Amino acid sequence: MKKPIGRLKTAINYALSQKQRVYQIFDHGEMPLNNNHDEQQVRPTTIGRKNYLFTKSEVGAKANAMWYSIIQTAKLNKLIKTVCYAVLTFERTIKHNKTGV
């Protein structure tokens, strides 16, 4: 049997070098086998990234980033009423900026 060459050899060597990391799944049963859930959480941000290219000002870009951060935080914390959470956050931010408290 011939030894693999080229890209196949590189792929096999990489897989063998990652063996110890992959086998951690067996040591830590709570580790998920894939990261699909995390990828789905990041997706809106990556889709929004294309929209950021068309932001007309730096202030607008910062507002977009803040909005996406607030919405994703609400989703990650399983808050059902994300819009209410966003409004409350903005109200508190405005109050803080006015009073300094």
Provide keyphrases for this structure.
101 residues; mainly alpha
Short description:
The chain is an all-alpha fold.
Number of helices: 6
Largest sheet: none
Which of globular, elongated, flat, extended, rod-shaped describes the shape?
Answer: elongated
According to DSSP, the number of beta strands is 0
The overall pLDDT average reads 80
- SSE pattern, N- to C-terminal: HHHHHH
How much of the sequence lies in strands comes to: under 5%
Write down the domain tally.
1
Category from helices, strands and their pairing: mainly alpha
What distance separates the N and C termini?
74 Å
For the CA atoms, what is the radius of gyration? 22 Å
Poorly predicted regions are none
Considering DSSP H and I runs of 4 or more, what fraction of the residues is helical?
over 70%
Report what the structure shows.
Helix 5 packs across helix 6. The model has no long low-confidence stretch (mean pLDDT 80). The protein has one domain. It has 6 helices and no strands. The protein has 101 residues and is mainly alpha-helical.
